[in-house]
Design brief:
Belongs to the UPF0251 family. This protein is α/β, with parallel strands linked by helices. It is 46% helix and 13% strand.
């Protein structure tokens, strides 16, 4: 029996639910849409935008570093597919819980981001 999936801690929901290429007039059918989960989006945000290491990202999300590596690889493949092939990117779903803002649980990164938004 496979191990149950552990929920991944996410700081905040994405501000955008997706993106679509400019200049595309065709309707998007199933094979023209790339679906990225919220937890995949969070790994991209933490590693590429916040410049955290995969170890720091795993601590932030409350999962193993090897799990972060797999999620990150999947997210990058989806981003590349959407960019290279001009597909719509939708960000939705996944196994995640929203961060409570507790500094001990989220390594302070969530709390830091929220304080900057309040200014």
């Amino acid at each position: 029996m496979p191990r149950p999936r552990k929920c991944r801690r996410v700081c905040a929901m994405p501000e955008n639910q997706g993106f679509e290429p400019l200049g595309k007039q065709e309707k998007y059918c199933g094979n023209r849409i790339v679906k990225m989960s919220i937890d995949e989006y969070e790994t991209i945000r933490l590693i590429d935008w916040e410049k955290l290491t995969q170890v720091q990202c795993s601590e932030q999300m409350g999962i193993a570093r090897t799990t972060v590596t797999g999620i990150y690889d999947s997210a990058r493949t989806k981003l590349a597919d959407a960019l290279i092939h001009g597909k719509m990117l939708k960000i939705q779903g996944g196994d995640y819980t929203l961060c409570s803002g507790d500094k001990e649980k989220c390594s302070g990164h969530c709390c830091k981001i929220e304080k900057e938004k309040e200014r």
